[in-house]
Amino acid sequence: MNQITNNLVSQAGQTQLSGIPNDTIQALNPIACVLLGPITQKLLYLGLQYHGVSSGPIAWMAWSFITASASMALAAGLAKLIYTRGPCYEFPTI
């Protein structure tokens, strides 16, 4: 989880932020988890129960790991897109 946050903070440091510090993403992460976590769980549980799918805690943990892995892969792909576009191209500022 820390690697995902570090990737996003590094990406934010390379973009134009209009005066917003790039560490703001670290403050938004817990807020998003608190707000979106219960909403997602309720919608997911209701959707699966509606379709007759029942799964145990190990399956939920596996799906959570898959989702976190996919988000890290998305962050890596987004970093590649940011670093290969102008004006920095392959040489981002340090």
UniProtKB/TrEMBL annotation:
User: What InterPro entries does the database record attribute to this sequence?
Assistant: MFS_trans_sf, POT_fam
Query: Does the record's keyword annotation contain Membrane?
Result: yes
Q: Which residues form the signal peptide?
A: none
User: By its UniProt entry, which Gene3D superfamilies does this protein fall under?
Assistant: MFS general substrate transporter like domains (1.20.1250.20)
GO molecular function terms here? transmembrane transporter activity
Mention any one GO cellular component term assigned to this protein in its UniProt record: membrane
User: How the protein sits in the membrane?
Assistant: Multi-pass membrane protein
Organism domain of life = Eukaryota
The principal localisation class reads: membrane
Q: Where found, per UniProt?
A: Membrane
Keywords assigned by UniProt, alphabetized:
Membrane, Transmembrane, Transmembrane helix
**Pfam families from the UniProt entry:** PTR2
Regions that span the bilayer: 58-79
Task: Specify the protein name.
Answer: Uncharacterized protein
What is the organism of origin for this protein? Aspergillus bertholletiae
